[in-house]
Amino acid sequence: MQIYLPIAEVSVNAFLLLGLGGLVGVLSGMFGVGGGFLMTPLLFFIGIPPAVAVATEANQIVASSFSGVLAHFKRRTVDLRMGTVLLIGGLTGAALGVVIFNYLKSLGQVDLLVKLCYVIFLGIIGSLMFVESLNAIRKSRKNTGPIKRKKHNWVHGLPFKMRFRVSGLYISVIPPLIVGVFVGILSAIMGVGGGFIMVPAMIYLLGMPTKVVVGTSLFQIIFVTAFTTLLHATTNYTVDMALAVLLLVGGVIGAQFGAVIGAKLKAEQLRILLALMVIAVCLKLALDLLIMPSELYSIGAAGGH
């Protein structure tokens, strides 16, 4: 069933979009990532222009994250205080990111920038998570007892400390604020919730327990991506509602399944699965950038007749 997308100006199979939305929803519920880092490249692959994919995907992430958060609220695995600190940073970063995005759009460089950002970030994060997860699995196989989390690193020496009861932490608000700003900028430029950066940062930098990280990450993602969508819709007019609705329906249903699956897997297994997916998408995008398109002169030829 083909459907025409007015803003993207392409026809796409409606069931394909529902399926993609569902797949990303499952990931959202399992890993605490908005799933945009996978969905936005997938939209590129089916022919959606990058500027439209970025703005519309931010919209879809809001719904799948909201659906995922509800499941985590029931289990009381959301640290609202930490989520709020991350959110303040995130909103600031998102506003900054949209300004950068609009400037690059005026230069005509936005498509290339978005794809390059994906290749770089996905490559780095996927590799780091993969190596770390392998080490964690190896340690758990050796049965050396529980893996000791380093309680003190440079983060604990910073001022403006605050107690985060759900996470069992007493740390400075500066690192979560910086993580939030960084993720907000990425959210605006790449159309992602930023969970693929947020989740590792919360686990390794802030020392939060994995079970609390997923719900807290999703809580923050909802508001940052909603804000990003609003900014893109009012400044760029690149939000395609027909595309967003189809992705939304799939995403909301998928997120509920994802939360159930995620609860059954070990933290190390979850992280290694996520790392493998990140690396796979990164490789596909890198190949697309490096390989010359087969119909290089098709536009010129069509214009000549």
TrEMBL record:
<feature type="transmembrane region" description="Helical">
    <location>
        <begin position="269"/>
        <end position="287"/>
    </location>
</feature>
<feature type="transmembrane region" description="Helical">
    <location>
        <begin position="169"/>
        <end position="192"/>
    </location>
</feature>
<feature type="transmembrane region" description="Helical">
    <location>
        <begin position="110"/>
        <end position="131"/>
    </location>
</feature>
<comment type="similarity">
    <text>Belongs to the 4-toluene sulfonate uptake permease (TSUP) (TC 2.A.102) family.</text>
</comment>
<keyword id="KW-1003">Cell membrane</keyword>
<feature type="transmembrane region" description="Helical">
    <location>
        <begin position="12"/>
        <end position="39"/>
    </location>
</feature>
<keyword id="KW-0812">Transmembrane</keyword>
<dbReference type="GO" id="GO:0005886">
    <property type="term" value="C:plasma membrane"/>
</dbReference>
<feature type="transmembrane region" description="Helical">
    <location>
        <begin position="85"/>
        <end position="104"/>
    </location>
</feature>
<feature type="transmembrane region" description="Helical">
    <location>
        <begin position="212"/>
        <end position="231"/>
    </location>
</feature>
<keyword id="KW-1133">Transmembrane helix</keyword>
<dbReference type="Pfam" id="PF01925">
    <property type="entry name" value="TauE"/>
</dbReference>
<feature type="transmembrane region" description="Helical">
    <location>
        <begin position="243"/>
        <end position="263"/>
    </location>
</feature>
<dbReference type="InterPro" id="IPR051598">
    <property type="entry name" value="TSUP/Inactive_protease-like"/>
</dbReference>
<dbReference type="InterPro" id="IPR002781">
    <property type="entry name" value="TM_pro_TauE-like"/>
</dbReference>
<protein>
    <recommendedName>
        <fullName>Probable membrane transporter protein</fullName>
    </recommendedName>
</protein>
<keyword id="KW-0472">Membrane</keyword>
